[in-house]
Specification:
By secondary structure, this protein is mostly helical. It is built from 7 helices and no strands.
């Protein structure tokens, strides 16, 4: 991450979020403990029949999310071209710079705008992982974006299903 070339604010934010994550992990271990019996009882890891029942109950939502994944990927592949390198201030649709921020291996030297500091903490690790698999930053960013959209559709399904 070339921390020596980063600003003091970036270093401070990285240290802050890392310490928050580690504090949460240690607090969870302290409060819950490493109870192996809890793992067997299904409190932490669910039992397999419960997983199968959950999948069966939410199969329609998973199919709907998969359909939206395909639609989002199709739209993103045809409209969201990586070769367009412009900034659209009306919709904030600066496509190529965001694709580089999410999955390009040389994106560490891109400038980061102040309203979006979480890009490096949230999107970047998933984008790097997908880039290791696909070796294409544009495809990795599209997969990450469409996966997030499909996850949103599935979460909406989980919220709306009990009301129907």
């Amino acid at each position: 991450m070339m921390l020596s070339e980063r600003s003091e604010l970036d270093k401070g934010l990285l240290l802050f979020f890392l310490s928050c994550a580690l504090t949460f992990i240690f607090y969870s271990l302290w409060s819950e403990g490493t109870n192996v019996d809890g793992l067997r009882a299904g409190r932490i890891l669910p039992r397999m029949p419960a997983v199968r029942e959950n999948i069966r109950d939410n199969a329609a939502g998973m199919l709907l999310a998969f359909f939206f994944f395909l639609v989002y990927f199709y739209i993103g592949s045809h409209i969201n071209q990586f070769v367009f390198s412009h900034t659209d201030n009306l919709f904030d649709a600066d496509i190529s710079s965001w694709i580089k921020r999410i999955a390009d291996p040389d994106a560490w030297n891109l400038e980061m705008r102040s309203p979006h500091p979480f890009t490096y903490f949230i999107f970047r690790p998933f984008g790097w992982f997908l880039y290791l698999i696909t070796q294409d930053p544009s495809l990795s960013a599209r997969l990450l974006n469409t996966g997030a959209g499909a996850a949103g559709v599935f979460l909406a399904w989980l919220l709306i299903r009990p009301l129907a």
